[in-house]
Amino acid sequence: xxxxxxxxxxxxxxxxxxxxxxxxxxxxxxxxxxxxxxxxxxxxxxxxxxxxxxxxxxxxxxxxxxxxxxxxxxxxxxxxxxxxxxxxxxxxxxxxxxxxxxxxxxxxxxxxxxxxxxxxxxxxxxxxxxxxxxxxxxxxxxxxxxxxxxxxxxxxxxxxxxxxxxxxxxxxxxxxxxxxxxxxxxxxxxxxxxxxxxxxxxxxxxxxxx
Length: 210
Ligand code: URA
Hints:
By secondary structure, the protein is of the alpha/beta class. It has one domain (about 10-45, about 75-200): Rossmann fold. The chain has helices at about 10-20, 25-45, 80-90, 140-150, 165-175, 200-205; strands at about 5, 50-55, 60-70, 75-80, 95-105, 110-120, 125-130, 135, 155-160, 160-165, 180, 185, 190, 195. The strands form four sheets. A seven-stranded mixed beta sheet has the order 1-11-9-7-4-5-6, sandwiched between helices. Strands 8-10-12 form a three-stranded parallel beta sheet. The structure holds uracil (URA). Uracil (URA) binds near residues 81, 193, 194 and 203.
């Protein structure tokens, strides 16, 4: 079982994250690093996938070899920044089923408002990995996991790049059964709900918007 919180301290992850945090890093650079880092995070979040064996014939002999068991896993991108993490993970797990949940943060209340949801069928039989680079207040992450549970998901993990202590607490309260995997836990949130020191608005950094 993964712990409730796993911080991936691998040197490559930490090095790439530092470059992503730097405000001088270009949109192209940010995007490339996010794709690279998501491969490394995907490795961690997919630890302990169910395995079985199959009989194969190597050039030398027959063997019982390990393969993944069960239904294809479901990756759920929390729009729009989740797509940056999704692309990298899909390179590693190309057969995964993919869903999208669109939530925007009301700038006054900082509460999530859902505007889109399309998720794969049979969520109850899959490992479901929800991805969003920034676990800030935790409001949208909690709302996304609420929705996934309403749709039947039972085995869910949450993958992000950066987490604020406030977001981790909120997730732990609302969904103690959902392990979080992140590259770093930052100091705090500012008054606008941004992670400090953070990396700014992940969607803007990724897509070159303001
Ligand atoms: N979303 C972001 O993109 N950045 C933050 O710091 C917090 C939420």
